[in-house]
Specification:
Number of strands: 0
Number of helices: 5
Helix content: 55-70%
Strand content: under 5%
Number of domains: 1
CATH class: Mainly Alpha
Structural class: mainly alpha
Distance between the termini: 20 Å
Order of helices and strands: HHHHH
CATH topology: 434 Repressor (Amino-terminal Domain)
């Protein structure tokens, strides 16, 4: 797994931890399958451009609501800010 993959895996795990979401709960929020979130967390696949956009929007929305405490730098480091 490369650095981008590790950072994305860590970001997804941190999002779930902070929001007390299961992989299935996060998958439902993003409109993807549980297996997809599981593969992202385990570095077996990377999100598509659309999924990255959905994940970034989800993060921004929950940050605005004060439920998530991630920095924009962390989101960009995980490559959600590109593509």
């Amino acid at each position: 797994m490369d650095t981008e993959g590790r950072s994305l895996s860590a970001l997804i795990k941190e999002i779930r931890r902070q929001l007390s979401l299961s992989q299935e709960d996060l998958a439902r929020q993003l409109g993807v399958s549980y297996a997809t979130v599981n593969r992202w967390e385990n570095g077996l696949s990377k999100p598509s451009k659309l999924a990255k956009a959905q994940l970034k929007a989800f993060c921004e929305k929950t940050i605005e609501r004060g439920k998530l405490t991630l920095s924009a730098d962390m989101i960009d480091f995980a490559d959600l800010g590109s593509d």
